[in-house]
Amino acid sequence: MLYGDLQFFDIIIFAAIAGFIIYRLRSVLGKRTGFQKENSNQKPIQKEQKKQENKIPSLLDNEVKLEAIYKHVSDFDHKQFLDGAKKAFEIIITAFNNGDKKTLVNLVSKDVYKAFEKAIDEKSNNSSSQFYSLIIDSVEDAKVENNTISISINFISEQMLNNDEGKIIKNKDTWTFEKPINSPSPIWVLTRT
C-alpha cells in the first residue's frame, strides 16, 4: 500500500510544478483575449520611417544636384541610377557602333533614335570601336517637372579602334535620361545627347 501512496504523491508534485510553470508563462507572456486594439505607438514610428525614407544620403560633390530628385522621389537610389546609366551608355554606344537598331529603339526617345538611325544609315558608326574605359564625370542637371524625372550626366569614355591600344579616342558626352515619376519600370529612356 505504501508504494501506491508514493505514486499518488508524485502525481500531485508534478501537477503542482506544471501549474506553477503555466502560471509563470502566462504572467510573462500575457494572454490573448480575442479582439486586440492597435498599439497607438506604432503610427508615430511609421511616420518616422517615412521621414527617414525621404532623407537625402550623403552625395559626392559631383552628384549634389541629385538632391532635387530625392526631394520629390522617396524611393530614388542614386547609386543604382548611376550604375544603370553607365550600363545604358555602354549598351547604346555598342549597339550604335554595331548598327543594331533593334536594341536602340527600346532605349532611346524617338528623336534620339532618328539621329542614331541617320548616322548608321550614313555609315558614321564604327563597328571596330570598343570600350576601353568609361567614367561618370558629374551630374550636369537633375530635376522633376511635369511628373517626369530628368537627369543629365557627363560621361568621359575612351574607345579603342581595331583592338589597338595605340588608337584610343577620348570623348566627353552629356546624356539626359528621363522617366515618369510614378513608373514602376526601372528603365530610363535617353532623351538627349
Please provide a written account of the structure.
The structure is a single chain. With 193 residues, the protein is α+β, with helices and mostly antiparallel strands. The protein has a domain at 61-192: Roll (Nuclear Transport Factor 2, Chain: A). It has helices at 2-29, 42-53, 67-72, 78-98, 101-107, 110-121; strands at residues 129-145, 148-161, 164-180, 189-192. It has a 4-stranded antiparallel beta sheet. Helix 4 packs antiparallel against helix 5. It is elongated, with a radius of gyration of 32 Å. Residues 47-52 have low confidence and may be disordered.
The total count of helices amounts to 6
DSSP strand (E) fraction? 25-35%
If you consult CATH, what is the topology of the domain at 61-192?
Answer: Nuclear Transport Factor 2, Chain: A
Oligomeric organization of the protein chains: single chain
Give the H and E element order. HHHHHHEEEE
The SS-based structural class is alpha+beta
Gap from first CA to last CA: 102 Å
Unreliable runs, pLDDT <50, ≥5 residues?
47-52
Shape: elongated
Overall pLDDT confidence: 83
Number of strands: 4
Query: Major β-sheet, in short?
Result: 4 strands, antiparallel
